[in-house]
């Protein structure tokens, strides 16, 4: 028997061509051939080995040759290793050929499936084309399609599917010149009446939905000027509303400390406009620019230039004068610019005076179709002032200082500015992620309960959101590995990276708890100490991160760190934009001071990144977060109360360790929930705008 090695083993030595004339098993010679082109189009051909002999004959042949070599003492030592390598190479080639054949078979199957799929798509496309016999053209004209749609509506009336009023709405929609009927309905005319009616309803609702022109008159907007919860709310909500098709603008004071680097195309309008204040008209400069795609107007007083030249936004003895000047100037500017917005959206007591000003002074200046919506981020700050000061901006104190208007419910000699905003607004939205409006009226109204009770029908509660584009683990460029609810492997990578960054032992199975805070004053250190002492006995790791750019971890937190002296606890006294993202991604649990966190939005971000939000409590057994179970509470409140709301830290740790599969399902489910600005928060505001426009 002869064995020939071809280009399949290019390094095979020439002496391997060996004659074996005394072979006991006369078999056809085997050849290891080069692979060539074939009709499969992948550049490979099937190796010419006899498949039934691959596992037996080839190995047998190699063994016989090895025995032949062993019979020659002078060649045995010299070539024994070479033959072993040859046999291994031969087996590897057989294995690779099998893999290639399997790949070719899979490729054939994929081609067949692709062809079937293309045929199916072609059949579906053909079915979509209405068949009206010979001579029908897919590019039918609008009149033809419109006529048939009207006839189908007649059929729906006769069969009792719809009433005359509904039919009238559908006919009006179809006859509207703005409806491109040929493009929108020509492909569904062949559908049954029920399917066609569903499509018509969908299009009718789409046509009925009106895009609103909304102008925010406010004192904060992230990232231009940020103090509290108002700043991220204005920006997040405005972007969400614009994504829904609404036109949104913002008017702000031109503070001395504005972050103008965040404003695109900032320019001063040369023409000055005048605003009424303290019995005279006063000039203002106007600056315009764009912030994250939102048009922003900045008002800068000339005569009262000191109003907005302070280092801080709030906390001055003349805050009332400062902000009623800005409120009046904003309305004067809107009149001067000729704008006629659908909604003036005002915020907190600082611009609540816009409500009385609008209805008593401005409504007759071309604003008959404009409505007022007030947002309150809490009723604890209301601004009580002498009634006579209302005249500064052109209001009549004698008309307004009444129990049903601006007179304070308790200190009746004073005017309550926030109360006036509630009374004079068409809708009032109070921002709270976990409380219903009934609980807010009963327990959180700070003396405004009688007023809120009277105006209960126009009060809504909306949750805060967060920026889902900046905080999304599936596309977060700050993370070493992205991940999502359907694949949490990347979260384990982030956990190891966080442990390494913090100098903790790198172990994915250890429970990692983090606490993110803005100021040390916001942290209940005594409760945290108790939690750390209890959990550290179970081998839990802790990371504390302060994200205030100005102050790191101060002396109080430093002494806390010294007191603990635990190798499993780390205090990160640093700040950079990437670190909070890594902390949320790498943690199993995030400790929260409150589930209603409008500034840092810790619970919302924790859920999005697959970390359980667990509230800080005095002891694990004593805490039960007050979450409203009212049917009118927010979806976030209902969700958090059924998942993490009553979960103590010890319970969470035990569940992670004792039932990891159930815990992972809970975390994955949490990550699918949408609590961004675009979700419930935007929906409630969108509904409120539509509601006030129908008044």
Plain-language structure description:
The protein has 695 residues and is of the alpha/beta class. The chain is 41% helix and 14% strand. It has 4 domains: 4-104, no CATH class; 142-208, no CATH class; 213-462, 3-Layer(aba) Sandwich (Rossmann fold); 489-675, 3-Layer(aba) Sandwich (Rossmann fold), CATH 3.40.50.2000. The chain has helices at residues 57-70, 73-128, 142-158, 164-175, 181-185, 193-208, 230-243, 319-337, 354-362, 397-400, 417-423, 437-443, 449-454, 489-502, 525-536, 555-564, 578-586, 602-608, 635-643, 649-658, 660-671, 677-693, and strands at 4-5, 31-32, 213-217, 247-253, 264-277, 280-291, 294-301, 343-347, 371-376, 384-385, 415-416, 427-431, 459-462, 512-517, 541-546, 569-572, 589-592, 612-615. The termini are far apart. Residues 213-452 form the Starch synthase catalytic domain. Residues 100-127 form a coiled coil. Pathway: Glycan biosynthesis; starch biosynthesis. It holds the Pfam family Glyco_transf_5.
